[in-house]
Write a sequence for this structure.
């Protein structure tokens, strides 16, 4: 059964889109822009915009009854909660400089695509799925 997910804690969908669709065993979240839903403002800088987009995704997940919590993630990936917690803790240890370098490479690739200078380079679009 298909169910539309909507929350005021994330920016409203633009045009004929939904913030997310719950298919019962899978949730599809539309691409999230870095707009603060409380102010309508876009934060300055790529790191702040990335954080805002992820906050918007977390708000939509919460509306769907899902989270990034290790107890919620563990059964979905078939591991004990302490293992999922370890993976989440390791992910949190990435240095800002490493993240910044990865983002800069993505920006370069996006620019190459938009200006026709692709030269066998590919940009990335992230799709997050949650199998229920």
């Amino acid at each position: 059964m298909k169910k539309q997910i909507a929350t005021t804690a994330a920016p409203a969908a633009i045009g004929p889109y939904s913030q997310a669709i719950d298919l019962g065993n899978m949730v599809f979240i539309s691409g999230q822009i870095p707009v603060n839903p409380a102010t309508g403002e876009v934060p300055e800088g790529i790191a702040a915009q990335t954080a805002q987009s992820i906050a918007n995704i977390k708000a939509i997940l919460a509306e769907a009854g899902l989270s990034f919590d290790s107890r919620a993630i563990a059964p979905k990936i078939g591991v004990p909660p302490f293992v999922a917690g370890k993976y989440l803790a390791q992910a949190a240890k990435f240095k800002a400089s490493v993240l910044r370098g990865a983002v800069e490479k993505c920006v370069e690739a996006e620019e190459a695509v938009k200006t026709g200078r692709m030269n066998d380079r590919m940009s990335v679009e992230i799709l997050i799925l949650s199998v229920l």
